[in-house]
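Can anyone check this?
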Amino acid sequence: MVVALLEDGVPVARGIMVPFRGRSVLPDLGWDAVAVWAVEDALDGVSPDTACGLEIAVHPSWQGRGLSSVVLAGMRDAVAASGLASLVIPVRPPDKALVPGLSMEEYAFSVRSDGLPVDRWLRTHVRAGGRLEGVAPCSATVQASLVEWRRWTGLPFDRDGSVVVPGALSPVLVSTLDGYAVYVEPNVWVSHRCG
């Protein structure tokens, strides 16, 4: 874990990682799969060579001040200091929420006129030396009752099919008959050489 502190020692941001042995292909199931790999590797005594970033979080009152870039740099430094070769992160590109109907594959590799990704968080990674490796189409899954989805979102969830939820990267799939909805979030695999 990497923590960004104020001068008085108050934490304002963090980055969480897990070490694992890299495989030949990054998994479609994103960090859910890597978390399993990390546990299996640890139980089997397999030495890690890679770290997977699970989260970079900035306290809401400190967002928009560049702390996510500071934490990302700290994560890269920590990975290098531990002797691991690389950091991989299933990145959640926040601006994708503005186009939930667009495929992540198309969105992730869309670039501006300067050649950088259209998404601000993907741009941050590329500027830091990261490389877009591909899409994890099922990186995170949230399965819950319609009662819970209504409580979380304030939306009615009263019809079957796809429902666009503000802030979600893809639509939520709803079954009123079952009283259940499932959100499958795609992420973008980004790799950083650290060693």
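Reply from J.R.: I decoded it. Residues 21 and 46 are 7 Å apart (CA to CA).
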